[in-house]
UniProtKB/TrEMBL annotation:
Keywords: Ligase. It comes from Rhodobacter ferrooxidans. Coiled coil: none annotated. Signal peptide: none annotated. Residues 7-61 form the Acetyl-coenzyme A synthetase N-terminal domain. Belongs to the ATP-dependent AMP-binding enzyme family. This is AMP-dependent synthetase and ligase. GO terms for cellular component: intracellular organelle lumen. InterPro entries: ACAS_N, AMP-bd_C, AMP-bd_C_sf, AMP-binding_CS, AMP-dep_synth/lig_dom, ANL_N_sf. It comes from the Bacteria.
Length: 634
C-alpha cells in the first residue's frame, strides 16, 4: 500500500490480526452472551462470524439507546413530499411500537426462525416491521414495491413465509401503487400460502381485507402483550434479501445476525463518521440493500437519526427536494445513487436551487449502487462544497468493499475510483486463469476468503448455488461479478459486470430474467436483452425479438405487448420500454448470443466481429434495427 497514515495502519492491523480486529469491533455491540471467537471456519469455504455469541438485533438498534438515556431523541424521521407530511418517532416511541407489533405477530404464531415477507413503500412502518421481526428472531424478507405480483410470488415460494406484512398502497408521483391487489395476486400465484397477512391501511387508500387471512395493522395489536427481544445465536439469519443473478430465479442473500451488527456498527463511525445523535440519510428504498443497511439497521444501531424519504430527487416537487430535506432535517451525511444526482443536474444544471438552502449541516455526500461518472462527482463537489465519496458494494456484502473512510482518514479522492479496500476485504484482480494481474490491468475482481462479518454466509436454501455462483470459479476467492483494476496506490476501479446483470437507475436487474419473460410471449421465437448506455439511468434495457416464422403479427404490436408483459411479470422497476424486431440474432458458431458486441453497436463504440461469429452479416442487420431507435450512430 503506497499510502502511509491512519487508514494504512488500520488496514495493515486488520491483515496482521483479523481475529483481534473483529473482536475489538465486537465491543460496540451489546451481547446477551459475548462471542469467544470471531471467525468460525469449521466448514470452510463456508464461514460464520461470532457464531457462539447470543444477541438480538432489535435490542441493539432500539432498546439499548432508550436504556442509555436517548429515548427522547428522534430515531426515524419520515419525510414525504408526496403526502406533504413529516413525522418523527423517538427511540422510546419506536421501542413501544416495535414491541407492540412484535407482540401481535407472536400472538398469531410468528416465532424465532419463521419467515415474514414485508412488501411496503417508504413509510416508517416498513422499518418498524423489519425491527419487529428482528425482535422475535423471525427472518424478514423485504420485497421492493416496484416488483410485480409474479416476482413477489417467486419470493413467497422460495422463503415460505408464515406471514406477509404489506401496506394498502404506495405513492409514486402521479400514481397510486395498489399493493393489496398485487399481494392477493402473488398469493394466488404462489404454491406456498402464508398463514396470515397484516395490512397497514394508509390514509390514501383503504384496502379490502380478506376475512380469515388478513388483519389490519392497528386492530391486530389491540390488547396484546408487547414482546421482549428474543436472544438468537450469532449465526441466526436476521434477513433474506433477494437480488438478481444470471437466471430468472433471484438469489436469496442471507444476512447473519452478529456479523451484521458488528460490521454495520463499525462502518458508521469508520466509513461515514457518524456518531449517536447525528442525522444520516440514505435516499434509497427499504427494498434494496442500501435501505436495509443504511436506512434501517446501521443508523439505528449507531444511535443516529435515520430519514425515511418518500419522494424522488426531482419532481416532488422540484430538483431542490434533496437540499430541502438536508436543510430542514440537518442531515450530516447524505447517501444516494449517482443517477439521482444526474436527474437533479439535468433539471438544475447550474445548481441554482442548491443556493436556496442552508446546507451547513452537510459534511459529506456518499455515492454507490452504480459507477459514479466523473461529471456527476465534479458537479456535486462544486455545488455542495463537501467531499463526494464514491464507494463500492453489493447486496451480497451488505457494506462497502471499497470506500474512502472519512471517520478514519480522508484519503485523496481519485475521480472514477471508489478508493481503497476496507479492512476485512483482501481485494485482488485475477485473469481468466486465476492469476493475479499487474496494477492497472483489467481483470475479474475477487475477494480472498473469508469475507468479513456482515457479508453473506450462503444463499437461502441454496448452498450449492452459493458455492457455484461465488466460490467455484476462483477457488479460495469470492467472485464479485465485477471487472476492473487496481492502480499502483491500491485504488480500485470498477468498470463492468462480468455476468448478465445490468444496472438501471442504481437498480440491479437480470437480463436473463427479462429474456425469460420475453420468451414467454407466444409470438417470440428467440430473444435477447442487453443494457445500453443511458445518460440518466446509467443503463437501460433493450430487447431484440425474433418472431415465429409466419406469425404474421405486426412488429410494433408485439413490441408493445412485450413492454406490457415485462411490467406485469417483473414490474415497473425493470423500466423495459424499448425492443426491436430482427430476423436473426448474432451468434458464435457454438450458438452463444453475442450480447457484448450488440451493446457496443448500440452504444456507438468501435466493435469488431468476433472471430467465432457464425455470420458477420447479421451485425449490419442489428445495427440497422438499432438505428431505427436512434442508437448505433456512425
Ligand atoms: N413502487 C412502485 N413503482 C416504482 C417504485 C416503487 N417503490 N420505484 C420506482 N417505481 C416505478 C416508477 O414509478 C417508474 O414507473 P413508470 O415506468 O410508470 O414511470 C419505474 O418504476 C421506473 O422507476 P425509476 O427507475 O426509479 O425511474 P423514474 O423515471 O421514476 O426516476 C430517478 C428516475 C433517477 C429519479 C430515480 O430512478 C431515482 O431516484 N433513482 C435513485 C436510485 C436509487 O435510489 N437506487 C437505490 C440503490 S442505492
Ligand atoms: P446491488 O447488489 O444492487 O447493490 O448492486 C451491486 C452492483 O452494483 C455491484 O456489483 C456493481 O456492479 C454496482 N456498483 C455498486 N456500487 C458501485 C460503485 N461505487 N461503482 C461501480 N459500480 C458499483
Amino acid at each position: 500500500m503506497a499510502y502511509a497514515g491512519a487508514y494504512a495502519d488500520l488496514y495493515a492491523g486488520w491483515k496482521a490480526n483479523p481475529e483481534g480486529f473483529w473482536m475489538e469491533a465486537a465491543q460496540g455491540i451489546d451481547w446477551v452472551k459475548a462471542p469467544t471467537r470471531a471467525l468460525n471456519d469449521d466448514r470452510a469455504p463456508l464461514y460464520e462470524w461470532f457464531s457462539d455469541a447470543v444477541v438480538n438485533t432489535c435490542f441493539n438498534a432500539v432498546d439499548r439507546h432508550v436504556l442509555a438515556g436517548r429515548g427522547d431523541q428522534i430515531a426515524i424521521k419520515h419525510v414525504s413530499p408526496i403526502t406533504h407530511s413529516t413525522k418523527g418517532i423517538t427511540y422510546a416511541q419506536l421501542q413501544k411500537r416495535v414491541a407492540s407489533l412484535a407482540g401481535a405477530l407472536r400472538a398469531k404464531g410468528v416465532e424465532k426462525g419463521d419467515r415474514v415477507i414485508i412488501y411496503m413503500p417508504m413509510i416508517a412502518e416498513a422499518v418498524e416491521a423489519m425491527l419487529a421481526c428482528a425482535r422475535l428472531g423471525a427472518i424478514h424478507s423485504v420485497v421492493f414495491g416496484g416488483f410485480a405480483a409474479n416476482e413477489l410470488a417467486v419470493r413467497i415460494d422460495d422463503c415460505t413465509p408464515k406471514c406477509i406484512i404489506a401496506a394498502s398502497c404506495g405513492l409514486e408521483p402521479g400514481r397510486v401503487v395498489h399493493y393489496k391487489p398485487l399481494l392477493d395476486k402473488a398469493i394466488d400465484l404462489a404454491s406456498h400460502k402464508p398463514d396470515f397477512c397484516v395490512v397497514f391501511q394508509r390514509e390514501e387508500e383503504v384496502a379490502k381485507l380478506i376475512e380469515g387471512r388478513d388483519v389490519a395493522w392497528h386492530t391486530f395489536q389491540y390488547g396484546v402483550e408487547p414482546a421482549e427481544c428474543v436472544p438468537v445465536s450469532g449465526d441466526h439469519p436476521v434477513y433474506i434479501l433477494y437480488t438478481s443473478g444470471t437466471t430468472g430465479a433471484p438469489k436469496g442473500v442471507v444476512r447473519a445476525t452478529a456479523g451484521h451488527l458488528v460490521a454495520l456498527n463499525w462502518t458508521m463511525k469508520a466509513i461515514y463518521d457518524i456518531d449517536a445523535g447525528d442525522v444520516f440519510w440514505a435516499a434509497s428504498d427499504v427494498g434494496w440493500v442500501v435501505g436495509h443497511s443504511y436506512i434501517c439497521y446501521a443508523p439505528l444501531i449507531a444511535g443516529a437519526t435515520t430519514i425515511v424519504y418518500e419522494g424522488k430527487p426531482v419532481g416532488t416537487p422540484d430538483a431542490g427536494a434533496f437540499w430541502r430535506v438536508v436543510q430542514n432535517q440537518r442531515v450530516k451525511v447524505l447517501f444516494t445513487a449517482p443517477t439521482a444526482l444526474r436527474a437533479i443536474k439535468r433539471d438544475d444544471p447550474q445548481g441554482e436551487l442548491i443556493k436556496d438552502y442552508n446546507l451547513r449541516s452537510l459534511k459529506a455526500l456518499y455515492l454507490a449502487g452504480e459507477r459514479a461518472d466523473p461529471d456527476t462527482i465534479l458537479w456535486a463537489g462544486r455545488h455542495l462544497n463537501v467531499p463526494v465519496i464514491d464507494h463500492w458494494w453489493q447486496t451480497e456484502t451488505g457494506w462497502a468493499i471499497a470506500a474512502n473512510p472519512l471517520g478514519i482518514e480522508a484519503l485523496t479522492v481519485k475521480i472514477g475510483s471508489p478508493s481503497v479496500a476496507m479492512p476485512g476485504y483482501d481485494v485482488q484482480v485475477l485473469d481468466e486463469g486465476g492469476h493475479p494481474v499487474a496494477p492497472g490491468t483489467l481483470g475479474a475482481i475477487v475477494v480472498k476468503l473469508p469475507l468479513p462479518p456482515g457479508t453473506l454466509p450462503t444463499l437461502w436454501n441454496a448452498e450449492d448455488r452459493f458455492k457455484k455462483s461465488y466460490l467455484a470459479h476462483f477457488p479460495g476467492f469470492y467472485e464479485t461479478g465485477d471487472a476492473g483494476y487496481i492502480d499502483e496506490d491500491g485504488y480500485l476501479y470498477i468498470m463492468a459486470r462480468t455476468d448478465d446483470v445490468i444496472n438501471v437507475a442504481g437498480h440491479r436487474l437480470s437480463t436473463g430474467a427479462m429474456e425469460e419473460v420475453l420468451a414467454g410471449h407466444p409470438d417470440v421465437a428467440e430473444c435477447a436483452v442487453i443494457g445500453v448506455a443511458d445518460q440518466l439511468k446509467g443503463q437501460s434495457p433493450l430487447g431484440f425479438l425474433c418472431l415465429n416464422k409466419g406469425s404474421g403479427r405486426d412488429a410494433g404490436d408485439v413490441v408493445k405487448e412485450c413492454v406490457k408483459l415485462m411490467r406485469e411479470k417483473i414490474g415497473p422497476v425493470a423500466d423495459f420500454k424499448r425492443a426491436v424486431v430482427v430476423d436473426r440474432l448474432p451468434k458464435t458458431r457454438s450458438g452463444k448470443i453475442l450480447r457484448g458486441t450488440m451493446v457496443k453497436i448500440a452504444d456507438s463504440t468501435p466493435y469488431k466481429a468476433p472471430a467465432t461469429i457464425d455470420d458477420p452479416a447479421i451485425l449490419d442487420e442489428i445495427k440497422a434495427a438499432l438505428q431505427t431507435l436512434g442508437l448505433a450512430k456512425g
